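Obj.: predict assembly geometry.
Materials: sequence records (below).
Method: joint structure prediction, all chains together.
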Amino acid sequence: MGHQCCSKQKVKRGLWSPEEDEKLIKYITTHGHGSWSSVPKLAGLQRCGKSCRLRWINYLRPDLKRGSFTAQEERTIVDVHRVLGNRWAQIVKHLPGRTDNEVKNFWNSCIKKKLIAQGLDPNTHNLLSTNYKHNYNSSACKLSDHSLQQPTSTFTANSQIYDISTEMKAPLTPFPTIPPAPDANPYYPPLVHEFSSILTGEYPNPNTQAFLECTASQSSIGSVPISSSTSHPSEFGMSDESFIWAGGYEPIQSILPEKKQPEQQVLETENTNELISVGQNMDASFETTNLGFDFVESTLLPCGMYYNPNPMDQLAWDSGFLQEKK
DNA sequence: AACGGAAGCAACCGCGCGGCG
DNA sequence: GCGCCGCGCGGTTGCTTCCGT
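Observations (raw structure tokens):
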């Protein structure tokens, strides 16, 4: 049975041939898609409009990013999914060049299994029972596990800023309980409660200390430094890859930050691809601050905790400079 | 080399929503 | 208000490729 939209036509189904692709590309790049239902006829295709639309959006669009997901994209997906659930169309808005279908497939084929293998319920992102985890361990994804070894999160405050305001499934419930520390869970690396103490700690690499002191000393609310950073680890001879966040799992209660102008928060992140994309995400988030929501600084943690990341933390998270890799 | 199961991914299906007459 | 239509979305299917035996 064909689609409703094309029940009167004889339509082809299944995989698209290169010739069909060519016809569709040629038509849309020349005329735009307009009404999808009329595209097949006008483009000379024996397909239904729905199929044309899907083919264009998921495969032929020129702005698509091909190739496997990066660790950063993976973290973004997890972060946003934690807030939105399976709303792929919303999730994919935070992954330029990706399609909802692609993200959905990636989630189902890989991330979901990774989360389960780590003892996390992929639906709720909360801890699973031991038995459940055990039962799924054997089916863990065999794809690259870079994200398991090196946290590279953007922490996507942008997506959560926007989506919390408009689409959050449940209200934030700050700190019902503090869960035990998961074992080096890459999806939920610890956050910055001990950030300020780190600043006064001792580091084998003096550059680390210098960088931390320089970049995170602007101001603070409570024990949480609120700062903008104009520095980059590389300026202190630090390699992005040489540091990872590996602290304890100690969430911090959200403290509403001072209202800050978005421009003040923009990081200079041109030095690595990783940080460039951080900057892009941050820029996107700043746009949403125009909406005037009070919780623009909030983001979610597992188990209903939340925390307000600031740009310094964002950078810290991504470059992983807070502690040296063992 | 052959086979079977698992994984990956493109495409389909059905439903809900919004615009319009 | 109602029905129709087109579109977009999320879930699912099924084909292809990969990988271990």
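Conclusions so far: Chain A has a mean pLDDT of 52.
To do: check interface contacts against the pulldown list.
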